[in-house]
Write a structure and sequence with these properties.
The chain is mainly beta and 99 residues long. It has a single domain (15-86), classed as Pantoate--beta-alanine Ligase, Chain: A,domain 2 (2-Layer Sandwich), CATH 3.30.1300. 13% of the residues lie in helices and 44% in strands. Strands 1, 2, 3, 4 and 5 form a five-stranded antiparallel beta sheet that branches.
Length: 99
């Protein structure tokens, strides 16, 4: 299944600085809620995980994040994420307080 995310934003940084930040996977991956870098495997790729919570359930996905296309002149990049289903079933998250 392919999902395309297109999220425009504005910033006070220069276009070149913003483009450099987007290519820095160690800075970008944690911007996704629940995302974290496990290991930087090259300049353009990293192993990562994301914890997804849906109500009282949570799941952990691991996979690779890779900059697969770059065009510095056009300030365009494609970042591809490949993940595996969780190894275990979803686990219930205990409520923050018991009644």
């Amino acid at each position: 299944m392919a999902v395309e995310l297109d999220h425009p934003f504005t910033t006070s940084r220069s276009l070149d600085d913003s483009y450099a930040v987007i290519l820095d996977l160690e800075r970008v991956i944690p911007c996704v809620e629940g995302g974290s870098v496990l290991e930087r495997t090259s300049d353009d790729s990293a192993k990562a995980e994301i914890k997804v919570k849906m109500g009282a359930m949570s799941m952990m996905f691991t996979g690779t994040v890779e900059v697969t296309e770059q065009d510095a002149a056009a300030h365009r990049a494609v970042i591809t994420v490949k993940s595996r289903k969780p190894a275990a079933r979803a686990t219930p998250t205990p409520p923050s307080r018991w009644h």
